[in-house]
Design brief:
Layout: H1 3-16, H2 50-59, H3 64-69, H4 74-83, H5 88-93, H6 97-112, H7 116-130, H8 166-180, H9 184-194
Helix pairs in contact: 1-6, 6-8, 7-9
Amino acid sequence: MFARPIQVAIAVVIAIGSVSTAAYASDAALVPAPQDQGISVTSDVNEAPAGSMRLLASLAPVPQESIATGDLRAGIVGESLKTNVISKLDVVLAQTSLGAQFVATKLNSLTYSWSNSQMGCLNTLWSRESHWNFKARNSRSGAYGIPQANPGTKMASAGKDWRTNPITQIKWGMSYINSRYGNPCAALASSSRKGWY
């Protein structure tokens, strides 16, 4: 269920390391390169255009030298995703439903360590609530964002940018679920009984 966002993230990490990403060509539309940057994948990191290197460095979730010189096995990629804080790339990814699910998985590994089944319940709950859309607003109740906080201003405790930043919404929603229900499956069960959580 979270495999596609992880594939996208791995494709981006591989692109940063200047390794061929042909296997991920179908995911290119999910992470479009800015038109004016001219990002190209080369056999040597030093051959990439300077503008591309600056862009990649600003988006990289791990230091560039460790990717350029390191082994890109899945274990190393997985460890880098766990140990790094939220990056600029995560903010961009979280503006899509798949990217938001990926960021929630990353935040879970950094903070809560809920099991895969718990994350499945979170996916079901927030798919039902907002389809993971950070701009979702319930016109009847006023609930807002990915977790459908009611009122949306509650999310200000996680950040002033709660209206526009999906990561702020995810952080608030996960914290709310943890403090009120203990885990996503309990929140989902409550939502299924009452129609809200």
